[in-house]
Amino acid sequence: MAAAQTQKKGTKSINDFCGYFGASGHPAITVLSGKPMRAWNLGFVFNRLRINYLLQETAAGTEDLSSVDWQVLQLNIITTRNAMGRVGGGFMKENFGGRKSFFESTYGLLLQSNSKKIGGNIEYRLAQDFDSGVVARRELSLQFEKRIASRGYWNTYITLGGVYQRYYESITVWGLQAGIAFRIFSPPIHHEP
Predict the structure, then answer these.
(1) Whole domain around residue 35: which residue ranges?
(2) Is 187 helix (H, G, I), strand (E, B) or coil?
(3) Dihedral sign from CA coordinates of 7, 142, 16, 2
(4) pLDDT tens digits for the chain (193 residues)?
């Protein structure tokens, strides 16, 4: 007989270590991307730092189009056992061209089963300069996650999803993503015989 899992009411993810890697496509270029990130979640306040690696292969060689995205403050406006909805703001710093910085707003929703075995995440990001009206990037991503290991506070998930990015309202990047996420839940998920 398989062991049952129980979880105390109000269990929330307090830390995430995630890495998403994928191949994206554009009709004229080949793009490889990766998104290692680190998030801190303390009740209703959330903070996330990610590096958006984006390498463009052209006839002239490889071009680095990566950025650092830091959601300085996100508010968890929905915090239930199975859902976390958040809105927030921070900045996107380009590592190419003029190395410009833009304000970035984020809207996201994470849904998980009662046992935290499966879940899904949808996130929308918009990086823009309010003075000039320039929209540096729009992004929509969807991920499905399945827990593959759990020990006390620590939980490991595999993820699969897709991402759509539009840079400067002219360059579209889309692709599939696969990755691994490590989450710490407080209080931990308990296993019962």
Answers:
(1) 4-192
(2) coil
(3) positive
(4) 333 343 444 445 545 555 555 544 444 444 455 666 767 666 677 788 888 877 777 788 887 888 899 989 989 898 888 898 999 999 999 988 788 999 999 999 999 998 889 999 999 999 999 999 999 999 999 999 999 999 888 889 999 999 899 989 988 888 888 888 888 776 655 555 4
| Placement of tokens 């759509």 in the chain | 164
**CATH code of 171's domain:** 2.40.128
Within 10 A of 168 (CB to CB), how many other CB atoms are there?
10
pTM tops 0.70? yes
Closest CA to 48 of 35, 57, 60, 58: 35
